[in-house]
Structures are given as structure tokens and as C-alpha cells.
Amino acid sequence: MNVNLTPSLEQYVRDCASTKDYNNASEVVREAIRLHKQKEDERQLKLERLRTLIKEGDDALANGDYIEINSKQEMDDFFAKL
Q: What secondary structure does DSSP assign to 16-61, as a single string?
């Protein structure tokens, strides 16, 4: 696989590779990809959880499991009880 980087990213990878934390540019790129994958996996988990919560909310509404709040005062009272 061949990857093209902008000059500034290429310089950044070289700078990182020249430290004691990495042995070469490949290690820097692999670490970046691992971190990106971890972030993407976490994003997917959050998205799945959000979809589940939305479905639970939709189901509750369909079953009549909700309260109506008609004013700011009612909302303040509701949150004060939480």
C-alpha cells in the first residue's frame, strides 16, 4: 500500500519518527490508524446506543408512557423532581 501525505503531515510523521517513542515512520502511521479505528469504534457504539434510546422513546410514546409539559414552570417542576 502506498499513501500520499500533504507536506505538513509528512513532516509531522518524520518529526514523530525521530523521537524515542517511535522507531520509524511506519510505526507512527500504524499508531495513527489504530487510534482512528478506536475512535470510529467508539463512535459506532455511541450511535448504536443513541438509536436504541430513540427506539425506546418512540415505543414509550406509542404506548402512551409520557407526560405533557405545557409551560416553563411545569418543566422546571419536572426537572426539580429528578
A: HHTSTT-SSHHHHHHHHHHHHHHHHHHHHHHHHHHHHHHHHHHHHH
Tell me how far apart the alpha carbons of residues 82 and 78 are, in angstroms, rounded to a whole number: 7
Classify 66 as helix, strand or coil: coil
- Measured from the Cβ of residue 13, the count of other Cβ atoms closer than 10 Å reads 20
Over residues 40-59, the pLDDT tens digits come to 999 999 999 999 999 999 99
**3-class state of residue 70 by DSSP:** coil
Q: What is the pTM of this model?
A: 0.70
Domain boundaries, the chain: 7-81
- Residue partners of 14: CB distance under 8 A and separation at least 6: 25
> How sure is the predictor about 6, in pLDDT bands with cuts at 50, 70 and 90?
very high
